[in-house]
Amino acid sequence: MMRIPFKQMKSEIKRAMIKAGLTEEQAETCARVHTESSRDGVYSHGLNRVPRFIDYVNKGWVDIKATPSLIKSCGCMENYDGNMGIGILNAKFATNRAIELAKEHNIGIVALKNTTHWMRGGTYAWDAVDNGFLSICWTNTESCMPAWGAKIPCVGNNPFCIGIPRKDGNIVLDMAMSQYSYGKLQVTRLKNEQLPYAGGFDKEGKLTKDPGSIEESMRILPTGYWKGSGLAILLDMVAAVLSNGMPTSEIDKIGKGSCGGCSQIFIAINPYTFGTEEQINNILESTINQLGAAEPVSEGGKVCYPGQRTAKTREDNDKNGIVADETIWNDICNL
């Protein structure tokens, strides 16, 4: 592993994206999102995902000239077609529209269909909470996880994010419906490490901590076993129904890579609709204080709220340079 300054990483990613055909403005936004993702510790969807994105652009699976088009507007809700455009830019647009609708209606819901991979879903939850809005957003994916009781992938792991703005540190949860994302498996495998807990089944159907065995079998473990499986199925259906887009079963048929043609939901809510800022902050601090006072399992450990470790990782990577896999970095430099 190596460490790379934020500015250098963003500049190199931007160069590669401009070479792939993106405009200066498109490349700047995408490069920043990828770099911020790695800076925040989500290496799998930051630097590591750049070669795959450029490959999809070169294959024509991502239309770099497409922008979202409004299908229907209904009060606090809007429906857009992403037209297979750049997933990051489509998701940024949808997040901003949800925020604008929430400013007018206290809640804004944008349903986006026919889009492409948004990379780190937490990006958009952080965007909303940084603007003072509670955020809920999720995406469906192609089949990449067996439903509980199945041997083969037949549901998506459908990443889900929820965030609450807080004066002393925003609270943001960013999770897939699998115990680990495939990106996390890749990062762990590249480091020649084992997962801390079983993350799926090997080809013999045995639970394993070995990321390579899970990647090979494609039998990744749903979060909470049958519960994560059920959540994944419902998140898929709701995203497709609200956007009038494709569920996982249809995404599988078009075969345009990870999340090609996916459906996404972006919700922004004014957290002070029914309470003052002081009242809401008191609610949040009560919970945070209780977590902080809980006795940790291991000596010297700490019980954290969602997003707390992200802030610490961000600080470390800003100070010391962003952790990067040397092989992937060299691949990007040669694009």
From TrEMBL:
GO molecular function terms attached to this record: 3-dehydro-L-gulonate 2-dehydrogenase activity
EC number: 1.1.1.130
Keywords: Oxidoreductase
This protein's record includes keyword Transmembrane helix: no
Broad class of enzyme this protein falls into: oxidoreductase
Name of the protein in its database record: 3-dehydro-L-gulonate 2-dehydrogenase
